[in-house]
Design a protein that fits this description.
This protein is mainly β. It has one domain: Jelly Rolls. Helices cover 10% and strands 42% of the residues. It has three helices and 14 strands. The strands form three sheets. Strands 3, 4, 6, 8, 11, 13 and 14 form a seven-stranded antiparallel sheet that branches. Strands 5-7-12-9-10 form a five-stranded antiparallel sheet.
Length: 217
């Protein structure tokens, strides 16, 4: 949970004379890779623990990714995570919900202004595309509070949501191999906007969430 404490000093007539705020990040630890809550199975992929990656402009080493709790690639390419099902019958699920925080990746760190740097994001589950959209920028400002708390420059992304059910879910289930779901976040080579990709973890960016798949029964 990310909390905000705002303090304001006012005179007797209500005039504000001073104001400030501080953030608190409250957590029992990094979210587990696998969690069962009621009728939901939650699978998570930490940014630095991708299984496969390929980027036209290169990426960074895992040690730095773990330190920043974010991974990034330049140009076009992809990151892919393995999400073990451990025997969960995915074909019998009612719905899959996917969430991640992502942005483009620029090599400089200017505070957010009108100089945008867009990219294209596609998300796949077992090679089945479930999301496509344009991410407007790689913003840096006070909204990236988790990045600041981690000693970074306030970088953050945009929430990307996807839902799979009915025929789309069954198509994904048919392509399960080794009892594993494969989550891929990609910038396609044919896209007009190829601004790289940054994927944020639960302790980086704006939202306390890493790439997350929720299986609803």
């Amino acid at each position: 949970m990310l909390c905000l404490l705002r303090l304001t000093a006012r005179t007797k007539d209500g005039t504000t004379i001073a104001e400030n705020f501080v953030h608190f990040f409250v957590s029992p630890g990094y979210p587990p890779e696998r969690e069962e809550i009621g009728r939901n199975l939650i699978l998570r992929g930490a940014p630095a623990e991708w299984a496969r990656a390929e980027w036209s402009g290169g990426t960074v080493d895992r040690q730095r990714e773990r330190a920043e709790d974010a991974c990034y690639g330049l140009g076009h390419g992809y990151f892919e995570w393995n999400l073990p099902l451990d025997g969960a019958p995915i074909a019998k699920a009612r719905r899959l919900r996917l969430l991640c925080e992502a942005s483009s990746h620029r090599v400089d760190t200017p505070q957010t202004d009108e100089d945008t740097f867009p990219t294209t994001l596609q998300m796949f589950l077992n090679d089945v595309r479930v999301y496509e959209g344009v991410l407007r920028n790689h913003p840096h400002d006070s909204q990236g509070v988790l990045s600041y708390l981690r000693g970074n420059h306030g970088a953050y992304g945009y929430p990307a949501y996807a839902t799979a059910e009915n025929d789309l879910l069954q198509e994904i289930a048919k392509k399960v191999t080794d009892n594993t779901l494969r989550l891929r976040c990609a910038v396609p080579a044919e896209a007009l906007a190829q601004g790289g990709l940054t994927v944020y973890g639960a302790e980086c960016g704006r939202l306390p969430v890493c790439p997350t798949l929720i299986v609803e029964w």
